[in-house]
Design a protein that fits this description.
By secondary structure, the protein is α+β, with helices and mostly antiparallel strands. It contains eleven helices and ten strands. The protein has a four-stranded antiparallel β-sheet. The longest helix has 53 residues. The structure holds guanosine-5'-triphosphate. This is Diguanylate cyclase (GGDEF)-like protein.
Length: 414
């Protein structure tokens, strides 16, 4: 996957680019204007200087007094930092020429650059009293002034660059705070919601209107998803409840009991711990239906389920397999006797008549068959078969002692 730049980085890069291009253009423009202005000022200055020098040496030129000419020219050359200063006769003969000592090293470089960039030479005629041309003053700048200016300009430019970049960096920080941070927060929120399915979380307010509106829309969408998700969860819970529980009693159904048995077998095989299965079938339940009606029979089944739940431990599984058939998974089981004890306790608690309201009170016992792992089988079918057959034998034995139905409440009994 290609690494994409972050928004903060893009913003920072954009600022730097804008600042650099602006500075470069501004510097170039300022340089060109400066060069033009300086050039014209320098040319004007040299021209005035040449003219003034011409007036100063008029008499000396007329009398060819070379020493006097030099005396005038030398201070001018030093003061004005001139590169060349000479006096030429109308026939082209050089009368006096003054040159400063040739610069060396950095000074030579400065002079070279200055003279290349600034064409700073000027000339003015030397006129006698009648206005006749008796010579010409020619002079040129040394070039170092320009370099000095250039260096000052560069220094100022650098200062500007530093200040601009500082301001650009501050602006980027501010933009980061107002744009990048809210977007980052929104992204982190989306990620956390996706991972933890926490649709009740909301985006906080953002300082920028568009981002705030985005957050608000996002929150509205989350609210809708939240409601939808809750409905889905409720549907799923109710589907799961229906798939794994008996609708009448709320106990585990046959499929769920089968699954818990498989888990119990696996766990017991791994840890070498026994477990027990009780198979229970109501005795004479049909008579309750026939006598008091199906609704009363239902109530009795519900009460029976409640009693079963009350007898066993929290972790044991009580299931209604169908009709008046129940089953209990006892896990863990310390010893086989514990299963018998619980079966006896169930038998005892079922002796108490069931109060079916207007229909009256009914007795309805449960015949129980017990199977324990690993004593009675090491597969689920084997265990269920053992428990079923044991229950059948118990029912047969019970039938021999059962009192006949008296057709009144408390009549159907084992
Ligand atoms: N009220 C009610 N009755 C049911 C329900 N499911 C099955 N039955 C009835 O329960 C009865 C179960 O039949 P049996 O097990 O033969 O009845 P029993 O009288 O207990 O017979 P034994 O087990 O031999 O003692 C049938 O009459 C079914 O119609 C139910 O959900 N509610």
């Amino acid at each position: 996957m290609t690494a994409r730049p972050t928004l903060a980085r893009v913003l920072r890069r954009g600022h730097w680019q804008v600042a650099s291009v602006t500075l470069l253009l501004f510097g170039l423009l300022l340089g060109l204007i400066g060069h033009a202005v300086l050039g014209s000022m320098q040319a004007r200055h040299l021209e005035l200087l040449a003219r003034a020098t011409g007036y100063s040496i008029e008499a000396a030129v007329m009398f060819r007094d070379l020493d006097a000419i030099r005396e005038v020219l030398q201070p001018i050359q030093r003061r004005e930092k001139l590169g060349l200063l000479r006096v030429v006769l109308p026939d082209g003969q050089v009368l006096v020429e003054l040159r400063p000592p040739a610069p060396t090293g950095l000074a030579a470089l400065q002079a070279g650059i200055g003279q290349t960039l600034m064409h700073d030479h000027a000339s003015a005629p030397v006129l006698d009293g009648n206005g006749r041309r008796i010579g010409e003053v020619q002079l040129s700048g040394e070039g170092s002034d320009f370099i000095e200016l250039l260096l000052w300009g560069l220094g100022a430019g650098l200062l500007c660059v530093t200040a601009t970049l500082g301001v650009a960096s501050l602006m980027t920080r501010r933009l980061e705070r107002s744009i990048v941070e809210p977007i980052d927060r929104l992204a982190a929120l989306t990620r956390s919601i996706r991972c933890e399915r926490a649709f009740d979380r909301r985006a906080p307010a953002a300082p920028i209107a568009e981002l705030h509106a985005l957050g608000e829309d996002f929150n509205a969408m989350l609210a809708e998803i939240d409601v939808h998700h809750r409905h889905l969860q409720q549907d799923r819970d109710s589907l799961s409840q229906r798939a794994w529980h008996d609708a009448l009693t709320g106990l585990a159904n046959r499929a769920s009991f089968q699954q818990r048995l498989e888990q119990a077998l696996l766990a017991s095989q791994q840890h070498g711990q026994p477990f027990g299965v009780l198979y229970l079938d109501a005795d004479g339940f049909k008579a309750v239906n026939d006598t008091a009606g199906h609704a009363a029979g239902d109530r009795l089944l519900v009460q029976m389920a409640e009693r079963l739940r009350a007898v066993v431990r929290e972790g044991d599984v009580v299931a209604r397999l169908g009709g008046d058939e129940f089953a209990v998974l006892l896990q863990p089981l310390r010893q086989v006797d514990d299963a018998r004890r619980i079966a006896r306790e169930i038998g005892r608690i079922m002796q108490v008549p069931f109060d079916l309201g207007e229909s009256g009170c009914f007795r309805c016992g449960l015949s129980a068959g017990i199977a324990t792992f690993p004593q009675d089988g090491d597969t689920i079918p084997a265990l269920l078969d053992t428990a079923d057959r044991a229950m059948y034998r118990a029912k047969q034995a019970g039938r021999q002692h059962r009192r006949p139905l008296r057709g009144s409440p408390e009549g159907a009994a084992t």
